[in-house]
Amino acid sequence: MNFEEFIKSDRESRNKEKFEGTFLDYLEIVKEKPEVAKLSHKRIYDMVVSKGIEVLKGEENPKVKKIYGNDPIRRYGFFKDDFFGIDKVIMKLVNYLHSASMKGEEARQVLYLVGPV
């Protein structure tokens, strides 16, 4: 599926899922399924953390200590097959998502990702 087809199918599905009801109807839906009212930051954070977190400590593993020093490193199972060697960057990203999901200062900031140059 190319990108244009993906956008068209997404727009068609959204038109079918349009909510029509009162605010009280919406509150009933939220009462039944609280995840409906989650912020996007919280949805992404939950998705990342759901695959598990592995904590690497430098004092337990000499290889980890050589690369990262004594700082504990958290590896997220969500990224384990896709990225290698950028654990500190991923930790910063997940910390941003965690703080933003709790409606901290980061929730009002823009996350700007720049690809490889």
Characterization of this structure:
It holds the Pfam family AAA_PrkA. One of its GO terms (molecular function) is protein kinase activity. It comes from Clostridium perfringens. By secondary structure, the chain is mostly helical. It folds into two domains: 37 residues, no CATH class; 68 residues, no CATH class. Helices cover 48% and strands 7% of the residues. The protein contains five helices and two strands, in the order αααβαβα. It has a two-stranded antiparallel ribbon. α3 packs across α5. The radius of gyration is 19 Å and the shape is elongated. The relative contact order is 0.11.
Q: How is the biggest beta sheet arranged?
A: 2 strands, antiparallel
**Helical/strand content category:** mainly alpha
Strand order across the largest sheet: 1-2
Portion in beta strands = 5-15%
Tell me, rounded to a whole number, the average pLDDT.
86
Unreliable sequence segments: none
> What count of domains describes the coordinates?
2
The counted number of beta strands is 2
- Rounded to the nearest angstrom, the radius of gyration is 19 Å
What share of residues is helical? 40-55%
